[in-house]
Amino acid sequence: MKDALQGVLVIELGTVLTAPLCGMMLADLGARVIKVEHPEGGDPFRRHAGSLYSPHFTAYNRGKESIQLDLQSAEGKADLRKLLEKADVLIENYRPGVLKRLGFGDDVLQELNPRLVRCSITGFGADGPYANRPCYDAVAVALGGLASQMLDPNEPQVYGPTIADNITGMYAAYGVLGALVRRNVTGKGARVEVNMLETSIAFSPEGFAQYTRLGMVPNSQTRVAISQSYAFTCADGKLFSVHLSSVDKFWQAFAGVLERPDLLQDPRFATPQSRTKHYQELRAEVAAIVRTRTRAEWFERLEASDVPFAPVNTVPEVMEDPQVRHLQIFHETTHPQVGKLTLMHRPVRIDGERGPDDRPPPMLGEHGEALRREFGLNPAPVKTQTPSA
What we know:
Number of helices: 18
Protein name: CoA transferase
Pfam families: CoA_transf_3
Organism: Caldimonas thermodepolymerans
Number of domains: 2
Order of helices and strands: EHEHEHEHHEHHEHHHEEHHHHHEHHEEH
Mean pLDDT: 93
CATH superfamily of the largest domain: Crotonobetainyl-coa:carnitine coa-transferase, domain 1
Number of strands: 11
Helix content: 25-40%
Structural class: alpha/beta
Radius of gyration: 25 Å
GO molecular function: CoA-transferase activity
CATH architecture of the largest domain: 3-Layer(aba) Sandwich
Keywords: Transferase
Largest sheet: 6 strands, parallel
Shape: elongated
């Protein structure tokens, strides 16, 4: 089970984030993923740091092979056909209709390889009033209601990591895996469709349930108030978070940590419902207390009282965290051209196994020559230089 998808061949026509993440997740499970890239510069994510091997690219492309094909040319299309004839999965995140214009519509693909699982990732779906609009993360989280549950309406500022991009890639991998399981029964491939709008909505089901059941329109404070989640600054300027949930024992233990048993008797804070209603007042009360001690002092008390807590770690602090190091989430490898790279292991273990060390992300066209020989593709076009005047 180290390689749950061993023997599965995936062709990825993916750029930037959603399709590459889907492809990487399948590679993490042991699939062979061939990334087809444009002859001029490849995946645009490669160039974000001024080279063809940016951190943005390496974050989403480990464990893959790379070949450059010009899908506008007859040779490139013929080569893609040969790859797809033997493939199990095709992933693409073009705008609707692009693949069909290239000569690889759904009917063509089904005839070419009836067992092929065809995964199409779009911004808003294959049709509808927004289908042909460009879509990126900030657009999807805004349209899908996530932004309204995260932003301060008085000072709106988009922040943090990508959400819609990441979850869309994950939902795509989930759909592909389901289609592969069904293919084992029927022998037939399937068309998997995922779009960033729907996945953004699906990622936040609680807010829609609150609205349709209770008429409540959630905002950036709704969930944190209900879950009793807080972040505080200590005397030394360091931050930590607690999550008290609706379980009374955590609130009672936290009041003990604060040495404020009187808070338990305060009618504003006596029940989960009243603490939700008076969230900001409770937050202000506790924030003043927390500022009287260092974070180390609070951590000793919190751990002894079994309160759910954690430091607000920066990225470097995460990598040095004792639990993270124990889990061996990160590992180092050496790329023959780039040098030392730090990669993540897949975050899933099967029968206690995480799988073999991941191969580093590919250089642009790194495996082109070997793949052309293996699949009988056309020779790579010879680049000619225009003589200088």
